[in-house]
Amino acid sequence: MRGRTFGVVVIGMVLAGVLFTRLGANQYYYFAAYVILQYVVLATAWNILGGYTGYVNFGTAAFFALGAYTSVVLIKGFAAPLPVLLAAGAAVAGLLGLGIGYLTLRLRGVFFSIATLALAVVLQTMVINWDYVGGARGISVVRPGRLPFFGSYVEFLFAVMLLLAIFAIAVAWWIETSRIGRGLAAIRDNEEAAECMGVPTLRLKLIATTVSGSLMGVAGAPFPYYVTFVEPSSAFNLDYAVNSLAMPMIGGTTTWVGPVIGAILLGTTQQVATVTISSALNLLIVGIILVAFVILAPDGILGLVQRLKGGARA
Amino acid sequence: MGNRLVVRDVQAGYGAVRVLHGVSIEVNDAETVVLLGTNGNGKSTLIKCVLGIVRPDAGEIFLEVDGQRIDLVGKPPEEIVNLGVTLVPEGRRLFPKLTVEENLLLGAYRPGARRHIDRNLAFCFETFPILRSRRKQRAGSMSGGEQQMLAIGRALMAAPAILLVDEPSVGLAPVLVSRVIGKIKELKDRYQLTVLMAEQNFNQATKIADRGYIIVHGRIEFEGHSTRELSENELVKKYYLGV
Prior knowledge:
The structure holds two protein chains of two kinds. By secondary structure, chain A is mainly α. In chain A, 75% of the residues lie in helices and 1% in strands. Chain A contains 15 helices and two strands. A two-stranded antiparallel sheet of chain A has the order 1-2. The two termini of chain A are 21 Å apart. Chain B has a six-stranded mixed β-sheet with strand order 6-7-8-3-9-10, sandwiched between helices. The interface between A and B is medium-sized, with 19 and 30 residues.
């Protein structure tokens, strides 16, 4: 039954996407939709480690920016095409995830979170002092020329991000329904017991950090083409860490649906607020919604729905 | 030939603190051996050494499966579990937010047990009928006795060759302790399960043990070849019976 929901969501997303590009709407909508889909990827990626495994990662921005700056290097040095950028962003950020996992996963709970926060700070400092990628000044990136089928390059980027979002959801769905997912749930609930039951805890956690980091990196890979001017303070923005954590919490962390709902809901709210009120309000909105959910519906929207249905589980 | 667990001259500890000073025990096929000792004498540490959660500083631990020797020291817990050694941990250590059924399925995580998952699940429900009626309930919402049954059931899902039970009586009312101990005895009688049980409740443990060891400050102080030898021992009288 879950498989059917998954299929419906994927087909729905593709149809909506195709329809959207055929509408030839105001360019702003593509910009906005790109950001929302980017958050679907980031929230889904965060949830693989934070939701399924129970390890809270505050370093989303580090993985995202690593993907973005890997692209910057490849564009500047090799004029690499977009598919290469995506693959490289995923690979580099995945390696970082594996390395960080290996170094820090012996730390439990809050100590792991602090380490990931430090990671973002360290990486940002390194990028600021690296002139080749523009350092603190930032760097301009020129988009490739016009493409067939798409009205504009942003429209094309929107389609790319749509595919990435579907890919990320598919990965999360696969993990959740596989033995890996059961093992991760065991770690989340009681890591010591999981170890006693013969769940290979370290290996599973490394898989989770690698996949999660890799998906965050792939979300950052098209970023230089999207903004055309990359600077450390935007690529390492705190928004990424806060949003990718808040969205799954609001949607619900135990299934792949939660981050998608959270990202679409919160992402859309932020985009609307940016246009109608002010972009400075975004983090405040996230904060208020998050506080409300933690108090009123700690298991997110999905948990709330389940509770209202009468709660099959006691 | 069956299975045999041998622990020889094991020394282990945490950091600078030495807990076990050369412990040797043996558990033979279809035997129930009890490791008696009050708190802080090293029972749980020894069990953790067998399962690979604590790495011994010295000594050997090995399994003999049909005459073949398999060393356990240095192997990670998942490999040791996959060899058929399964633990019912102290304090139960369930997955409280998962359902009873999910808990049981996680017991069969080891590759060797996955093939027989249906058979073992049926076996668990037959042994502990209460688990069948509670299968969709969250494990954390059950009573202490039911949770202990689930912990044992979860370990049985791994189809263990050797079952380690760490203090099944902890935190249970006396009537539940006898019920849990009774279940372990039933398993032992019906299925010739090989069991190593760490326990401090002397009276309950000797009800089901074939023989046992008394561990004091990280050393085996007495080896009783029968429960009678155990109950007539001076140490037991001193520590447990208050004579």
